[in-house]
Amino acid sequence: MSAMSAGAPRSLASSGQKSIQDILHPLSAEESALNPGSAAEKDLILPNGTPVDTSSPASSSSLLNRLQLDDDLDGETRDLFVTVDDPKKHVSTMETYITYRVCTKTTRTEFDLPEYTVRRRYQDFDWLRNKLEESQPTHLIPPLPEKFVMKGVVDRFSEEFVETRRKALDKFLKRVADHPVLSFNEHFNAFLSAKDLNKRQGLALLTKMGESVKYVTGGYKLRARPVEFAAMGDYLDLFTQKLGTIDRIAQRIIKEQSEFLMELREYGPVYSSWSSFEEDLHDPLEGVSGCVSNCSSALEELTEDMSEDFLPVLREYVLYIESMKNVLKKRDQVQAEYETKLEAVVFREDKKTPVPTDVEKCQDRVECFNADLKADWDRWENNKRQDFRQLLTGMADKNIQYYEKCLAAWESLIPVLQDKQEAEGETS
Amino acid sequence: QFLGGLGFVMVEKGTSLLKMMEISVAEAEKRTGKNAVNMQETYTVYLIETRPVDAASEGTNPVPDSLWRRYSEFELLRNYLLVTYPFSVVPPLPEKRAEFVWHKLSADNMDPDFVERRRVGLENFLLRVASHPDLSSDKIFYSFLTEENGWKETVFETGFQAKADSRLKALNATFRVKNPDKRFAEMKHYGDELQSVISQLLRVRARAADRLYGVYKVHGNYGRVFSEWSAIEKEMGDGLQSAGHHMDAYAASVDDILEEEEHYADQLKEYLFYADALRAVCRKHELTQYELEMAAQDLTSKKQQREELATGTIRTFSLKGMTSKLFGQETPEQREAKVKMLETQIEEGEELVKERNTECEEFVKSAWVDIERFKEQKDHDLREALISYAIMQISMCKKGIQVWNNAKECFSKM
């Protein structure tokens, strides 16, 4: 594989202060960056101090990311399939919890076997996500469903809650599996294949996590956020707002529908008691009562569906956006560090001597980050569009089904109501 | 056949008045004037239009005769009919004050929607009376429709108010009938049950209407937020924006839906008040029966008194008897005078009983004819009302399907 020149336009996703021509290609000074396990690569250290994950071919070096054909999501080249299903309750003396079955099918050589079936609990998914965030900080990590649920308010073991969670966990793993970089992550591999997840490493890293947070907030000042990333941040802020509004509206509708349902449940039976002291009108009135009852059931289904399918997806996206904003902040920090260091250098030395390596590494970090983020952003936009198209058409569908059920009920009532008149017509 | 304002008034064959003339309550207007205590008041008057039936069919279209009446005059007419035709189930007037309202509807009598619904209700009332076999040929009713001035005086001249007062007192008093007519007792019970169930139905329906309004209107908020959201999107923007418009349309559609439903509520209300009219007939029958029983009882006791005087035995307690025992026997002359008086009273009493008996029999006959007529009318009208209610619901469902399909199309283009 040949080293690329500084002039390759597509691959250099630079968004720094200088023009593309002036910036040295991050790899031009280090030919061996492509070889896994090379000495040079060991120098790549992430802002939080952890070594770069080098066990996979598409490591944090964004070059491979850029060179790889962007994954088509149609599954033609997909070689990793993951599903989450079969929730089961585990009762022990210490605690009660739910586990989910995680099935994997793959042709990837990174996996020892073509198929795996393991059982995981929410904690494990949480661990995986944290590991991904730490080890791939330049990428957008998909969200998990909410961790904490108020005991007493929500039944953590109810069918609806468990099913909602299962769907979200399934979505999470599928998004990771579809991601060209994240899917090769060693922790993801372990999650899918290991009999028992080794969490000691997780504990150790937890302390390092604390340090990294300090690092990020102990900030350098950013001169100017590049337009495209500023636009992303603005967009995310506005989008979160809109999602919040939609969530509130949906909840309000569910509430009003529930109260309407309550009245309907009282309304229908009144027709029934009326029919009990009528002769001619007995059947028509009884028919109306039955009709109202059918409509009530249809409405109940609609409300439940919206609660179970619509609201959780909205909330997932809000969480997703939260984590994305954090990634944007980290990016800002990386750029700020680079700019500060570069400035210090520029004023001290003359232009002839090459830029010191740590400044170069900062520059590299910035560019990698920007490239990863942009690629992920495009992917995210695409997914977002699909997800919301699906979500909203789903909402429309549910409402259509509700009205169709009611329509059928009332239409079938008409002949019952007209019955006597037809009989009269025959006899008269 | 001429159909009434609410489209479901059943017209009797051979109705005299409705065959001759078209009746409608065409308009409502606000007036101000001085009332009985010389204070300014605002009230509504309704324009009653009448036109001979033939005129329309001949092709000529003469201007209808018309006059203005206010609600209190309708009330006066109805009270007159109640007293004059006690065996008839007299059609009810639309409610005096708005009841069973859900929050958006005003309970204000001056509210234009209320006035409009009342106009329709008053027209319905007139058509019902005009198609009633007994009531339609009443002269007072006719002059109500045709003579603007002096009608009130004419009504008072009939002296119905005196009858009304005494009857009212009797009806309000509690009395026990010894041999209640089973059919009427059952009818009265039916009237009670009907009134109770329709009241409940109207109450719950009003609450449900309130909630339904809320459901639709909140969807309008989607319209706004989709519009705002579309402004920050590129490809998704158009789909969202148009979907938002459909959500607005959905929210707006509830106003028409609930207005139509109010129509259904009015139909139910008419029968709520009809239940009252039915019970009134049963009550009046009870009174008639009671008066007959009282007369018969009185006659029997007088006859027994005569017997005692004749045989000298005292079986019935009478104060006169006791005092005569205490203060000595009476003279034969005195006794004979008493007997003679009793004989006259007995004769009169027998006449009275005969009268009251005939009255009772006639009442029962007439009342039962009208009750049967009413039963058929009620079954027909309520069935029609339920059919139109079902049709309304079907229309609402179809509109809902259409709107959501439109929205779905927009979403799929996102």
UniProtKB/TrEMBL annotation, chain A:
GO cellular component, alphabetical, reads: early endosome; phagophore assembly site
Q: Which domain of life is it from?
A: Eukaryota
Top-level taxonomy: Eukaryota, Metazoa, Chordata, Craniata, Vertebrata
Name the Gene Ontology molecular function terms of this record.
phosphatidylinositol binding
> What InterPro entries does this protein map onto?
AH/BAR_dom_sf, PX_dom, PX_dom_sf
| Coiled coil residues, start to end | none
Which family is it part of? Belongs to the sorting nexin family.
Keywords per UniProt: Protein transport, Transport
**Region of interest: Disordered:** 41-63
CDD domains xref list = PX_SNX30
* Domain PX as annotated: residue spans: 78-199
BP-aspect Gene Ontology terms: autophagy of mitochondrion; endocytic recycling; piecemeal microautophagy of the nucleus; protein transport; reticulophagy
Designated name of the protein: Sorting nexin-30
UniProtKB/TrEMBL annotation, chain B:
Q: Which Pfam families match?
A: PX
| UniProt keyword list | Protein transport, Transport
Q: Which domain of life is it from?
A: Eukaryota
List, in alphabetical order, the GO biological process terms annotated in this UniProt record.
Answer: positive regulation of autophagosome assembly; protein transport
| Domain PX, first and last residues per copy | 24-152
Q: Which Gene3D superfamilies match?
A: Arfaptin homology (AH) domain/BAR domain, Phox-like domain
What cellular-component terms does GO give this entry?
A: early endosome membrane; plasma membrane; SNARE complex
* MF terms (GO), sorted A to Z: phosphatidylinositol-3-phosphate binding
SUPFAM superfamilies (alphabetical) = PX domain
| Family as reported in the entry's similarity comment | Belongs to the sorting nexin family.
- The protein depicted here goes by the name Sorting nexin 4
Instruction: Give the organism's phylogenetic lineage.
Output: Eukaryota, Metazoa, Chordata, Craniata, Vertebrata
